[in-house]
Design goal:
Layout lengths: L1 H12 L3 H8 L17 H14 L4 E8 L5 E4 L5 E2 L5 H13 L8 E4 L18 E4 H10 L3 H11 L1 H10 L10 H9 L11 H9 L2 H12 L9 H12 L5 E2 L1 H12 L6 H12 L18 E8 L2 E11 L2 E10 L3 H23 L35 H9 L15 H4 L11
Antiparallel strand pairs: 1-2, 1-9, 3-6, 4-5, 7-8, 8-9
Helix pairs in contact: 3-14, 4-6, 4-7, 5-6, 5-15, 9-10, 10-11
């Protein structure tokens, strides 16, 4: 217990100066309102950029932007609910901190990782031996920083999925029904065969490990004892389309932005809990080609990514300075992964630059690491996104380092060869989340 406490303490001390300044600064709503034009111009100019970019994008963009100090906002398809993928883990985090506040859970409490907790898309917990016990704090970090699906469902098991949905409703946020990550798989593949409901966590993980639609369809057939070709790529595509139509794990961008804004302003659970949630989100390692790619190097970004078949999301708070957060919430539907990520980066960059120039006179545009945006066709592939490992190791990363040599992926896991070499580039959104 002391060892884990020390790891968490070291991680807190190792946060960047920018992150510490954000956490110790007055709440954003108390900041002095920045100077700006009588009639803000940045939403109009951002709209022009979005329309230009959308012309060459084969999918559909949903985005909401709000400059917190001024209250000025911009929206594009932001009131239409869309699937959130792993961004629902923000809701898991909110419920966890609520239960911590009322004394039901302590972040130092130990939870056990068992055979029934295995998941695809688990870059940290996927290398733990069943029976390993870890603090709730570590599961929280793995869930947000690396979008680890096993860690996420451990958090869900700890707090209760009914409580997650009840708290969202009581706080007034309009979300569709939220489920665990393994239930996402059951709800999708169950549309092809109801026997999926009886599959073990390990069997469902083996389907998730399959690369691409064809291999996934073959693995599903094999797991259910059917002949190859029983399920096809069009079947898998149809299953996802039908699942997305149910409204599970979905919300509009203006609604997710409202939740993030309330966290940033200290309104969710408590001021201290909100600060701690922002701190956790500042450590997110996934989505380097999304919002992060459009921002000047070193810009604090408290966010969460989501990735699933035909869906790419990134949402959070970009900080112009420690008292100037800008809420940015975006998801795409059906565009190719690379072009979807580039579009999010492009719109985030434009929003950041326009608000900076309009509210902070004398600002000189900084260079960023963003890449050129190109048009791509619809892609049926199941992909994964990269994860940055810069900076001090978090407690979750220490856990991965300690267990890497103890448990290598077994042949039954269907992991690709060369996994070990690429482990630092694999992020927790996995193939679907």
């Amino acid at each position: 217990m002391l060892a884990w406490t020390s790891l968490v303490s070291l991680r807190l001390l190792a946060q960047s100066a920018c992150a510490l300044a954000l956490l110790s600064a007055p709440l954003a709503h108390a900041a002095e309102r920045p100077r700006m034009h009588a009639f803000p111009e940045w939403p109009v100019r951002l709209q022009s950029e979005v329309l230009r970019a959308s012309k060459t994008f084969t999918g559909e963009l949903h985005v909401f932007v709000k400059d917190i100090p001024t209250g000025v906002q911009y929206s594009y398809n932001s009131s239409t609910p869309t699937y959130l993928a792993s961004c629902v883990k923000i809701a898991f985090m909110v419920e966890l901190f609520r239960q911590v506040r009322v004394g039901k859970i302590n972040l130092s409490d130990q939870i056990e990782y068992s055979e029934e907790d295995v998941r695809d898309g688990s870059p940290v917990f996927g290398y733990l031996a069943p029976g390993t016990k870890v603090p709730v704090q570590v599961a929280l970090e793995a869930m947000i920083h690396h979008s680890d699906n096993a860690a996420s469902d451990l958090v869900v098991r700890t707090v209760g999925i009914d409580n997650v949905n009840r708290t969202l409703k009581e706080l007034g946020y309009r979300f569709g029904p939220i489920t665990s990550l393994i239930d996402v798989r059951r709800l999708v593949y169950g549309r092809l065969d109801p026997r999926v409901e009886t599959l073990s966590a390990k069997e469902i993980r083996s389907i998730g490990f399959a690369k691409g639609g064809e291999e996934r369809a073959l693995k599903l057939s094999e797991t259910l004892g059917e002949l190859p070709g029983t399920f096809t790529i069009p079947d898998v595509h149809r299953a996802f389309v039908e699942y997305y139509g149910t409204g599970y794990n979905s919300a509009a961008m203006d609604e997710t932005a409202r939740l993030i804004e309330d966290i940033v302003l200290g309104r969710v659970v408590s001021t201290q809990a909100s600060r701690e949630m922002v701190q956790i989100m500042l450590g997110t390692r996934t989505g380097e080609r999304r919002i992060r790619a459009g921002l000047p190097d070193g810009t604090p970004l408290a966010h969460k990514t989501g990735t699933q078949y035909g869906r790419i999301c990134d949402m959070g708070a970009m900080y112009l300075d420690e008292n100037h957060p800008v809420i940015f919430s975006a998801c795409t539907k059906w565009g190719r992964r690379e072009s979807s990520e580039d579009l999010i980066a492009r719109v985030a960059k434009k929003a950041f630059d326009l608000i900076q120039m309009e509210t902070q006179p004398g600002f000189r545009q900084a260079t960023t690491s963003s890449t050129a945006v190109g048009a791509d066709d619809f892609d049926l592939a199941f992909g994964t996104e990269s994860s940055s490992q810069d900076g001090a190791l978090t407690a979750a990363e220490e856990l991965l380092e300690e267990n890497w040599q103890r448990k290598k992926p077994d042949k039954a896991s269907d992991r690709s060869k060369g996994k070990k070499k690429k482990k630092k580039k694999k992020d927790g959104d996995g193939k679907n989340e």
